[in-house]
């Protein structure tokens, strides 16, 4: 499956291109969507395929409602007892939805949606939410939300979107943005941006029904800026870290420098250093102030240790041009001294990861972005992001009153453009963007939820993985997006009970799996005849 994340407008453009090419009609696409939805439901709950039950289908005034009428017809054809309710006026349905409404009317009744709660007394086994999909443009009426909420139970399936949720952002439209929670969301054609970020608590799973639009996708290279980080892509993006030549020297594999905080505050940087080493940096050095040297020396073995006491000492250290990636922030504190170190690191033109306290220091400056350059990576969490980009954060936080709503992808992209470097905006939906508008989402949601990753020090490890990848020659955007994925994979490899120290140690198992997929990937690409 492709890892594109589409906006609603992009999805519409694809559908329209397919229709304009004469390859398919809108009605056929709607049939594919409805038939595919029933297949997906039965794949999810095979017991439903074996024993037809009762279904309630809630249809809306647009093509999402049209999909609902198809689902109703297909279920009835399989022996289900189906009740259909419509929100709005049948006379005003768009043409394809209208055709499917008429087809359903040959099989059964359509009642007004306001009557739908009565159907609960007949104990439906399955409820289909086909009220709104990608065409949602304003908040749900309160009465409609109440009706939908009556059906919040185990087997509620939303077609394309949980009605009320904007597919460009994953946000619920409205002042208080109350969410409707289906058990399953069936995305048509592709996952949309809103399936990967925003209010990710809203469903337990998203599956995709293929509408066979790959030809239209292929004809639009560069049209899609948003991607979801998936396993198959990492195999390619991380190829530099699998290319250690047998005769290679450790310096050929990069030298990462991680600055620690003072005495009693070096743990965060040591975690980052361990992660940078585990991900494959040839050498990793922790640089510590004099007072913290003993503390670090007692803890570090493979990671080297150097002393720095001020910005001048750092500048002297950076005369060694084998040091090719720096990490500043974890445990460093917020002070004028850290600010001076930041200046030296940025002026050196090296690849620099700025995390934690370094971001707070940066945000305190009159012109936070003047020294940043394209080799920097910023890794803010929500609070740090709001300090650095207060206007963007405020826009993202304001209630979304109309679709398409401002998304976390939009916000991160705007931040990266302003900062002039890659930004990784953390969260259960981590978004990575570069200054040219490329963006990726790593969502730790649905079947990739790893709540145990929210543990002290986990962010320091992420900063270390990015730094290690940078030192190995992975470009900033790919280093940040790959690190987000690896970090989550490491959490899965370990499982619950994880503490930050476990994350670097879990990386080799993740890399082993990637390496074997890498070999398979290379075997496929080299055996394929060139075109
Ligand atoms: N040919 C196509 O375009 C296909 C479309 N498909 C389905 O079509 C959906 C998109 O269809 P539409 O663009 O018609 O959009 P929707 O079906 O999501 O709804 C749009 C309609 O709802 C109204 N509306 C929006 N927000 C409202 C609110 N809060 N309260 C009351 N009315 C509101 C709009 O004025 C418009 O009439 C997709 O999500 C997908 O389910 C699929 O059938 C695949 C093929
Ligand atoms: K829906």
TrEMBL record:
Task: Give the YjeF N-terminal domain ranges.
Answer: 11-219
Q: Which InterPro entries match?
A: Carbohydrate_kinase_pred_CS, CARKD, Nnr, Ribokinase-like, YjeF_N_dom, YjeF_N_dom_sf
Specify the protein name: Bifunctional NAD(P)H-hydrate repair enzyme
Domain YjeF C-terminal: from-to ranges: 233-514
CDD domains cross-referenced by the UniProt entry: YXKO-related
The task this protein performs is described as:
Catalyzes the dehydration of the S-form of NAD(P)HX at the expense of ADP, which is converted to AMP. Together with NAD(P)HX epimerase, which catalyzes the epimerization of the S- and R-forms, the enzyme allows the repair of both epimers of NAD(P)HX, a damaged form of NAD(P)H that is a result of enzymatic or heat-dependent hydration. Catalyzes the epimerization of the S- and R-forms of NAD(P)HX, a damaged form of NAD(P)H that is a result of enzymatic or heat-dependent hydration. This is a prerequisite for the S-specific NAD(P)H-hydrate dehydratase to allow the repair of both epimers of NAD(P)HX.
Could you give a single Gene Ontology term from the biological process aspect?
nicotinamide nucleotide metabolic process
Subunit details:
Homotetramer.
Origin species = Jannaschia pohangensis
Task: State where K(+) binds.
Answer: 64, 129, 163
At the top level, the lineage of the source is: Bacteria
Q: Which reaction does it catalyse?
A: (6R)-NADHX = (6S)-NADHX; (6S)-NADHX + ADP = AMP + phosphate + NADH + H(+); (6S)-NADPHX + ADP = AMP + phosphate + NADPH + H(+); (6R)-NADPHX = (6S)-NADPHX
| Record-stated family | In the N-terminal section; belongs to the NnrE/AIBP family. Belongs to the NnrE/AIBP family.
Keywords, A to Z, come to: ATP-binding, Isomerase, Kinase, Lyase, Metal-binding, Multifunctional enzyme, NAD, NADP, Nucleotide-binding, Potassium, Transferase
Which HAMAP family does the record match to this protein? Answer: NADHX_dehydratase (MF_01965), NADHX_epimerase (MF_01966)
